[in-house]
């Protein structure tokens, strides 16, 4: 029987690899300084996954935590969405590997590809399946091993990213709770500002491509910065309007953690004091699709969200893409 319901978060989890790489460690590799990195980005350290650990391994740990908190068995999942730009391989999808690892034999699974906006896109997608009644419980995971795509000769990018995974189980919540409004969008014209040229079929990762550093993240930081300060607050505002709410209603903003200055500018646009904004960029750097769910799990475990709180997720990323989500916490 199809039961239409509101969709909310039932449980969260996260995992970051043990190895911590500090700004001082990077000073030994490229011409940079702890002072520059902290001042321009807010980052102090990040975690890197060791060889042999793959995105699906981190997803699996975060997923088990989220299921545990939700009080659900893996068999109760109807769907798994893994949001990543660093899958273990193109086929099978990372979601298939996670399904096998956790034994979620009743779940339909797929990877979703929206870079740093991935988790917010995934959460909105999960919401549609639950609201339509097609699914009861959907596991959404954001996970990345970006360290394998970082050019440690390029100081413009190699100081910015880190590895990790975050997960949330979305399920049915009572009327008036859960996801109340959302916004998502993209501007493909901005694809040139942030990409990994040799990461698909257009330029295969040959020795020549490697020699030209085409297998690494390339970014025009200034262009991405301008885009980010424009869209992060705007997507949150649009999602709030669709929920029939305004910035005054926000109890906690959980933004994509790319740069503390971008986060501060979104907070300013939303008239929010920083104590209503969750920040953990200093510990993890930019973990792309994992950044929002890692932050959401930390905020959740720290008791930063209480029943009836209005929680806003807002992300932007390569594509270019953006997405915002407003939830009444249950
Ligand atoms: O999830 C989405 C992914 N990306 C982002 O969100 C990134 C968005 N962009 C940014 O966060 C910022 O643009 C950056 C952090 C990447 C750069 O900050 P900025 O304040 O825009 O610096 P800049 O690019 O204007 O560079 C200023 C100077 C330059 O030197 P000159 O030309 O003024 O002599 C850079 O070469 O800082 C230099 N620089 C560095 N210096 C020390 C760039 N990277 C570094 C570095 N260490 N790591």
CATH architectural category of the largest domain: 3-Layer(aba) Sandwich
Helix and strand string, N-terminal first?
EEHHEHEHEHEHEEEHEHEHHHEE
Q: Widest sheet: strand order?
A: 1-7-6-4-5
Uncertain spans, ≥5 residues at pLDDT below 50?
Answer: none
Shape: globular
Query: How many β-strands, per DSSP?
Result: 13
On the 0 to 100 scale, the average pLDDT is 97
What fraction strand?
15-25%
Task: Output the CATH homologous superfamily of the largest domain.
Answer: Thiolase/Chalcone synthase
Give a short account of the largest sheet. 5 strands, mixed
Helix count?
11
Structural class: alpha/beta
CATH class of the largest domain, named Alpha Beta
Give me the CATH fold name of the largest domain: Peroxisomal Thiolase, Chain A, domain 1
Computed CA radius of gyration, to the nearest angstrom: 19 Å
Helix content: 25-40%
Ligands present: oxa(dethia)-CoA
**How many independent structural domains?**
2
Distance between the termini: 25 Å
SSE blueprint and pairings:
Layout: E1 6-15, E2 20-22, H1 23-27, H2 34-41, E3 45-47, H3 55-70, E4 79-83, H4 94-102, E5 108-112, H5 118-132, E6 138-144, H6 155-158, E7 164-173, E8 178-186, E9 194-195, H7 207-211, E10 218-219, H8 221-242, E11 252-255, H9 260-269, H10 281-284, H11 291-301, E12 310-317, E13 321-328
Parallel strand pairs: 4-5, 4-6, 11-12
Antiparallel strand pairs: 1-7, 2-3, 6-7, 8-13, 9-10, 12-13
Bound molecules: oxa(dethia)-CoA (UT7).
Oxa(dethia)-CoA binds at residues 32, 36-37, 40-41, 116, 155-156, 159, 194, 219, 221-222, 224-225, 228, 258-259, 286, 317.
């Amino acid at each position: 029987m199809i039961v239409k319901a509101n969709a909310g978060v039932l449980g969260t989890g996260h995992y970051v690899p043990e190895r911590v790489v500090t700004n001082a460690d990077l000073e030994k590799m490229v011409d940079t300084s702890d002072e520059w990195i902290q001042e321009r980005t807010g980052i102090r350290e990040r975690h890197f996954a060791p060889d042999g650990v793959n995105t699906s391994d981190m997803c699996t740990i975060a997923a088990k935590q989220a299921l545990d908190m939700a009080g659900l068995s893996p068999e109760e999942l109807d769907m798994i969405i893994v949001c990543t730009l660093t899958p273990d391989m193109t086929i099978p999808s990372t979601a298939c590997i996670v399904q096998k690892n956790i034994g979620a034999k009743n779940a339909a699974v797929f990877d979703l590809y929206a870079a740093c906006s991935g988790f917010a896109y995934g959460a909105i997608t999960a919401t549609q399946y639950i609201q339509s009644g097609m699914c009861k419980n959907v596991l959404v995971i954001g996970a990345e091993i970006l360290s394998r795509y970082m050019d440690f000769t390029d100081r413009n990018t190699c100081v910015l990213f880190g590895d990790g995974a975050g997960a949330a189980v979305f399920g049915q919540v009572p009327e008036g709770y859960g996801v109340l409004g959302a916004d998502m969008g993209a501007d493909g014209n901005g694809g040139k500002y942030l990409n990994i040229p040799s990461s698909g079929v257009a330029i295969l990762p040959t020795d020549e491509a490697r020699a030209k550093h085409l297998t690494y993240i390339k970014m025009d930081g200034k262009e991405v910065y301008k885009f980010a300060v424009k869209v992060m607050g705007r997507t949150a505002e649009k999602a709030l309007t669709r929920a029939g709410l305004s910035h005054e209603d926000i109890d906690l903003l959980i933004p994509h953690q790319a740069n503390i200055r971008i986060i501060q500018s979104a907070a300013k646009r939303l008239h929010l004091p920083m104590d209503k904004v969750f920040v953990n960029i200093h510990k993890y750097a930019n973990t792309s699709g994992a950044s929002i769910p890692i932050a959401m799990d930390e905020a959740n475990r720290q008791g930063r969200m209480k029943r009836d709180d209005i929680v806003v997720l807002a992300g932007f990323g390569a594509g270019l893409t953006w997405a915002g989500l407003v939830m009444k916490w249950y």
